[in-house]
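Explain this protein:
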Amino acid sequence: GWVFGGYASESWTSRGDYVQAPGSFLFRLANANKFDPLKIDPGNENVQQCLYDEKANGPVFGGTAGNDWQVFTGTFEANKGNFVDAKGTVAIGNTYGVGTGVDGNAFCGGNLLYLDVEVYSIGRKDESKLLPEGTDWREVQWTDNEREKLKQHVAGYKPTSSSVSQANILLAGQVGAGKSSFFNTITSIYKGRVSSQAMAGSHQHSVSKKYRSYEVKAERGGETLCFRLCDTMGLEDANTGLDLDDLNYLLDGNVPDNYQFNPAVKITPATPGFKTATGVKDRVHCVVLVLDTRNISVMPEDIMGKIRKVYDKAMDRGIPTVVLLTKVDKACEYVGRDLNMVYRSRFIQDKVQEVNEKLGVPEYQILPLRNYSKQTSLDTKIDILSLSALKHILGFADDYLDEHCRSPPAENQL
């Protein structure tokens, strides 16, 4: 197939006019005829009309003598794996490649049926995206000693109520955000190696098909820690993924471990294994919403609506909610290079504020995170972020237990 495109040295801002954009060019990277890669520059006298910037059309390269490449016109449906006629045009030689003999056939094979259209923004490194050194918006000690302190704190956790042996933490979130990967990261820390006990991945639909209540051991063959991480099916569009009617029973502790989710069949008291008599020890004590940091601004409204409803249902029951913002290393280039930049990153800070505005979750309950994904050995900084997040989650679970396990007031003595 053909791989071709264009680079615009000026941003598209719907100015409704031709744009002087020296440095712009068209290119061909691959083609069915195995021609060499090709770069097509504008003629020197044509740089005033390198681009046409108008909101009714997609990107347009070329000027008044004729458009060299109009990428598409209007809007069109997602292709879902098929070629799409986006109603573009190509006529190389008007502004680009003037006098070179290069034409539309050499550029794209004369074919503007697209399988994929990819758009990239290229910018210069901007140090203003980082807060000055020493002004992190949250303080963290990135040391092996801090990691060990957090690890021991979580391992020594005991619920505040003697009637509850383990805090129940429910993980919910969009497909591929990293719910199962968070459990894998925590259990990796205590196993001393990267583990994949829970099925995880980046698929279009939820990898988690069962309700799983995972426990973590302090070490191989050691004691079980006093919390459970309960993994659910991912939140998808209105007709697939976790059914919000099922969520009520998950929050109330009615659903048995290993329950197989079926979007076509709702959970009812007649569901095999359904727990009818539940108490505080069975219920969820903290809800954790797991969101991909990169998707906050572009998340489909139906998915965001589902996430709001999860938060609302938890609030109605007095259950604290924490948001984990995952994949911070992929969302911010500085954090990707060095994880201890996470609290100097203005971008990550902005995403925390954006989640606060969209969901209403307080900022101190929104925690950046990086799960293990491609690593084959443990990383102190990943461990510190994950253990710190879990420490906060367990603290909020205790808040729920403190409120719901209080002893009834004594009767007045006569």
Summary: Confidence is low (pLDDT under 50) at residues 201-207, 408-414.
